[in-house]
């Protein structure tokens, strides 16, 4: 996966249709999420599409998230959010300004409110998971 900075740079040069394609490509690049992990416990509430996020903890890598969505653009948004925290220790995730990292993408202006309404809930689930595993 490219870095968030790489994606931001490319995103800034694209027209709206190409931005959608970039998000879809990011979603396609996510590792497949096993069906067994798509449970009510991993479901992100408040998303217009179904979104699942699950974290595993490896001492040398920090928290590694797997995620999926049944909507291509939403899956790309999930991938974008995960780029801000992937493989970081729980304490680092808690200290990360995820919203600030995503602000340059101006997603609320670029996408419909239906597509972006679940992002705060995804971020909350990530932080909740990091908080539970941090201490």
If you had to describe this structure to a student in words, what would you say it looks like?
It is a single chain. With 135 residues, the protein is mainly α. The chain has a single domain, classed as Sufe protein. Chain: A (Alpha-Beta Complex), CATH 3.90.1010.10. 53% of the residues lie in helices and 12% in strands. The protein is built from 8 helices and 2 strands; from the N terminus they run ααββαααααα. The protein has helices spanning 4-13, 16-29, 72-83, 90-95, 98-102, 107-110, 113-116, 119-134, and strands at 51-58, 62-69. Strands 1-2 form a two-stranded antiparallel sheet. β1 and β2 form a beta hairpin. The chain is globular. The termini are far apart.
User: What is the correct CATH architecture?
Assistant: Alpha-Beta Complex
Count of distinct structural domains: 1
CATH fold field value: Sufe protein. Chain: A
Which spans have pLDDT < 50 for at least 5 consecutive residues? Answer: none
CATH class: Alpha Beta
Rounded to an integer, what's the Rg over CA atoms? 14 Å
Strand content: 5-15%
Strand order of the largest sheet: 1-2
Mean pLDDT: 90
Distance between the termini: 29 Å
Overall SS class: mainly alpha
Reported for the largest beta sheet, the result is: 2 strands, antiparallel
General shape: globular
Question: What's the tally of helices?
Answer: 8
Helix content: 40-55%
**H/E series, N to C?**
HHEEHHHHHH
Total E-strand runs: 2
